[in-house]
Specification:
By secondary structure, the chain is an alpha+beta fold. It folds into three domains: about 1-120, Tetratricopeptide repeat domain (Serine Threonine Protein Phosphatase 5, Tetratricopeptide repeat, Alpha Horseshoe); about 185-295; about 315-495, Nucleotide cyclase, GGDEF domain (Alpha-Beta Plaits). The chain contains 14 helices and eight strands. Helix 2 (about 30-40) runs antiparallel to helix 3 and helix 7 runs antiparallel to helix 8. The radius of gyration is 50 Å and the shape is rod-shaped.
Length: about 500
Amino acid sequence: MTIKYFRMKGFISIWIVALLASFPATAQNSSQLLQRLAGVKADTGKVLLLIQVAGSYTKENATEGIKYAEEALELSEKLNWQQGVRRANTALGDLYKSKGQYGKALKYYSKGVKLPAIGSSDDKAGRDQREEVQREQLLKEQQQREQVQREQLHREQLQKEQLKEELEKKQSELEERQKDLLLKSEEIGSQKIAIQKTKEELEKNAQEISAVQEQLSIAETEKQLQEARVNALIQEKMLQQSEIESKKKEKRIYTLAVSLMVVVLLFAIYVLLNQRKSNRLISQEKRKSDELLLNILPVEVANELKEKGEAEAKLYNEVSVLFSDFVGFTHIAEQLSPQDLVTELHTCFKAFDAIIFKYGIEKIKTVGDAYLAVAGLPASNPDHALNVVNAAIEICEFMDQRYALRGDQTFTVRIGINSGSVVAGIVGVRKFAYDIWGDTVNIAARMEQNSEAGKINVSGDTYELIKDRFDCEYRGKIHAKNKGETDMYFVTGRKNQA
């Protein structure tokens, strides 16, 4: 009886300590528990305090809590204290569950329960039931997690398929645009042929006019000489007859001589006026020819070509290149008739020509819906970057006004600018064209390709030249051939100089 009493008393003591250890750790923080742990001498009490310390880390630092739980499990196994083993396993299950490691949590839950068993069959049944509930809950949470992962994978697969369709659509649009650009290039080539043919006809006409003028001048000179000889003979005859004729007849002869002189004078005036008229026509044709040449080449290059018959290519170290392109050109072109499309392009490019002429910028060429211009050549200009950006802002403003007026019947523009050095010169002998080459041109094209509708995208080199006069927004870097990574900036407006 006495042995049973003391054994029961021991179980009750252990039960009370376990209940105290199961209270939430929020009442005592981990540092206080560790201080208490240093003063505990009983091994079972140390196990229970280690489990309580581990529980205090469940939400904040599960990894740290696992160390104390594993220490409690090792000490319980050393003491062969089954109740401590179950509680330490249960604590480890809670810690791994808080970390989302459900497999390990289920492993430790299967070895222990949250409350220790006293030894009765009812408690064992309750423990088994709780273990089963915990297993079912963990399996359910793991199934939900796998379901979420499957749904996420399904959504990602749908997004990949949509992206693939969009890429195929963009590829198709790009091919159509390349075809349109090829057609436009052929049309421009035909126009250049017509211009060259017209120039050759003008030169031929000028040569024919010059030859006719020379023949006319010779004929008129011979005629004047013949008339002069005739007049001299008449006068000589009249002088011979004057000796035998009366003064009255002399007066008539004199009158006739004066009349003839007047006729000769009038004829000479007529010839002179005709010659001046012919010279004026030749000058007009020459001026038209010069204007046509200046419409193709810069003034300095055209003068060099007329004087020497050729123009050498030159290197220009400080220039700024402007590229522009119409966004969605292929789509808008499909909605317009060919005549309306060409008319709208002509209207826009005519406005671009006026704007760049205002800022002293040299137009190089247009290719389809692309527009290329450069500042700083053939005459150097220290404000080349400022002039190009000011012109780009006015071009964007014009296109905004045009879009507000015509809507989808016109275009939106994107612009790219880069500064540096280029080589410029004439390409070919017949049907020649003035063009520019170099990395500066290629990077300007890359700036335009990576711009957006209604925006001006400038390189880092241009930004350094304009940053004191314009507000800019940094966009990051882009890879440029032969240059590596290049900075990009959007020009957002002019700085307030007041």
